[in-house]
Amino acid sequence: MHHFEYNNGILCAEDIPIDDIARDVGTPFYCYSSATLERHFRVFAQAFKRPGALIAYSVKANSNLSVVRTLAKAGAGADVVSRGELRRALTAGVAANRIVFSGVGKTREEMAEALEVGIYQFNVESEPELEALSQVSQAMNKMAPITLRINPDVDAGTHEKITTGRAENKFGIAWGKAREIYRDAASLPGLKIVGVDVHIGSQITALDPFEQAFKKVSGLVKDLRADGHDIQRLDLGGGLGIPYASKGKIPPHPDQYASMIERVTDGLDVQLIFEPGRLIVGNAGLLVSRVIYIKHGENRHFVILDAAMNDLIRPALYDAHHDILPIVEPAQNAVQMPFDVVGPVCETGDRFAQNCNLPPLRSGDLVAIMSTGAYGAVQSCEYNTRPLIPEVMVRGGQMAVIRRRPSYEDMLASEPIADWLN
Ligand code: LLP
Question: Which of 164, 166, 197, 202 to probe ligand 1 with, by most ligand atoms within 8 A of CB?
Fold first, then answer.
């Protein structure tokens, strides 16, 4: 559930009509609802009956400082994958001892910085990473708390580009080598084994792949304890999907996910850790854009927006579906017709939707591309020298610009002309 609804014929973000925001900040822009962020976090957190779980919001989904701070205030920790994200999480007010560090390619500099601030754990993904972390931590006279991310070889049944738990994916330690590598890890100085980690993909819409993976790693926890390791934590990653369309696939509710986990991990006596991203922010944000032109082709009609694939890459990259709503509520009996909704970038892939039924739109009208709070702004770029678009957060009747639109001068200033060209 989210807080974007029509009120008096205008789509509102909580209590604010979106056309008012467009007037203030110009288009295109991302708009987030603070109440929706808090609600999603609460629904997820309250689904778990067993106390003590750490819900480490996966910052990669939306790393805006105000978004991370909203969630930190609601009780979230953070899952980070780079030094930049670590700094964001700390700046946003997440305590270091509630931060987990994931990713296949942590550098020694990143490890040192994370050790210095005292993060909760490193989720290690390979033998060479174990060795590097052992050396860095030893040199700093520290003990790095580690889990090993295990690749359970389970098909998450999601888009090929966001599945991570199959043997052929680059992620995690091969299932068959897990016990042996835990043994190696235990013999390395500067490391303290604290748990097991798994993450099998994103936008997963069935419980079954999770259950298969979690059963495997729960069994592994027992084997590792039998091998003498002190396994206190089980990090189950993120990946629970969201509904992207009113008529699309409906993923399991967090309550169903939680009760499956409680059943599978019953009696295991571990602290559970979760790294949800999309589930928290996906439906808490939308992308607002203005129609530049309506163009009628021979057998297609195009809505050309001022937002483009550089602002939201998901449809081009993962064939993702996002509902598109006009900001002015269409009349009940409005005739709809199929449009291809596209951006101004010079690529055929710059298309948000194909054959999308919309009421008659005119140049200057506003639309909202829904469910774009996760992996929207964070994956944007300046292709075609289009400035990164602003982000706005709404809380009840209040509104704040939480990332400014850069000026063209800002954009060009970071590119000094090579001396020999002057
Ligand atoms: N933990 C780890 C180790 C991850 O790799 C990810 C996401 C998450 C947690 C959070 O997953 P979530 O709960 O958000 O599904 N750009 C793609 C999604 C990439 C997901 C990468 N890893 C998209 O737009 O669909």
Answer: 202
CA atoms within 13 A of residue 400's CA, in its CB half-sphere: 11
Model pLDDT, residue 249 = 85
Active site residue 346: yes
The count of domains in the chain is: 2
Which of 264, 280, 296 lies at the terminal end of a domain, its last residue? 280
Q: What percent of the chain has pLDDT over 70?
A: 100
The Å distance, Cα 202 to ligand 1 centre, comes to: 5
Residue 178, φ and ψ in degrees, nearest 5: -60, -50
Q: Does the predicted model carry a pTM greater than 0.90?
A: yes
Structure tokens that stand for 188 in this block:
């390395």
Q: Express each pLDDT in 190-219 by its tens digit.
A: 999 999 999 999 999 999 999 999 999 999
- Provide φ and ψ at 373, rounded to 5°: -70, -25
Contact yes or no for 260/41 (Cβ under 8 A): no
Q: Mean pLDDT over residues 55-65, rounded?
A: 98
Catalytically annotated residue among 12, 31, 346, 381 = 346
Residue of 406, 408, 412 whose CA lies nearest to 391: 406
Decide if 420 is inside a domain: no
Q: Say if residue 317 is in the same domain as residue 376.
A: yes
Look up the domain containing 71 and give its range.
Answer: 34-280
* Tokens (6 digits) for 41: 């976090």
For residue 79 and ligand 1, the question of a CB distance below 6 A is answered with yes
Residue 292: is it exposed, middle or buried by C-beta count within 10 angstroms (0-12/13-18/19+)?
Answer: middle
Taking the C-alpha atoms of residue 223 and residue 216, their distance in angstroms, rounded to an integer, is 11
